[in-house]
Amino acid sequence: MEDAFKDLDPLLHARLRLAIVSLLISVESADFTFIKKKTNATSGNLSIQLDKLENAGYLKIEKSFRGKRPLTTCSLTQKGVKAFEEYVQNIQSY
Q1: SS3 of residue 81 by DSSP
Q2: For residue 75, what is the enclosing H or E element?
Q3: Would you call 43 exposed, middle or buried from its count of C-beta atoms within 10 A (0-12, 13-18, 19+)?
Q4: Cα(20)–Cα(39) distance, rounded to whole angstroms?
């Protein structure tokens, strides 16, 4: 008998990382402050989770300035979109 339950991507299965990718799937990009507000994450935890997603190739992080203030902008990569779509399909199969 074939296993009907596919493995879930452990990177996306963490609540905050899933929230980040869920937010970014519907927008072209979002800045750090927007993501922080929407997920109620602390700055430190959000930074760590964004780094994990970037290291996996799921998102691209661009650092720039808005006036004199630093601006961190995040967007999903094609790999990130594909991983999210597969994650959702696997959840639906449960």
Answers
A1: helix
A2: strand 69-76
A3: exposed
A4: 7
Each residue's pLDDT, cut to its tens digit, for the chain (94 residues) gives: 355 678 899 999 999 999 999 999 999 999 999 999 999 999 999 999 999 999 999 999 999 999 999 999 999 999 999 999 999 999 998 8
Euclidean distance between CA atoms 8 and 58, whole angstroms: 15
Q: Are 71 and 63 in contact (CB under 8 A)?
A: yes
Q: Global pTM?
A: 0.89
Separation between Cα atoms, residue 84 and residue 75, nearest integer Å: 13
- Going by C-alpha positions, the residue among 61, 69, 67, 1 that lies closest to residue 35 is 61
DSSP H or E segment with residue 12 = helix 10-13
Backbone CA torsion sign across 6, 15, 39, 54: negative
Answer whether 21's CB lies under 8 Å from 80's CB: yes
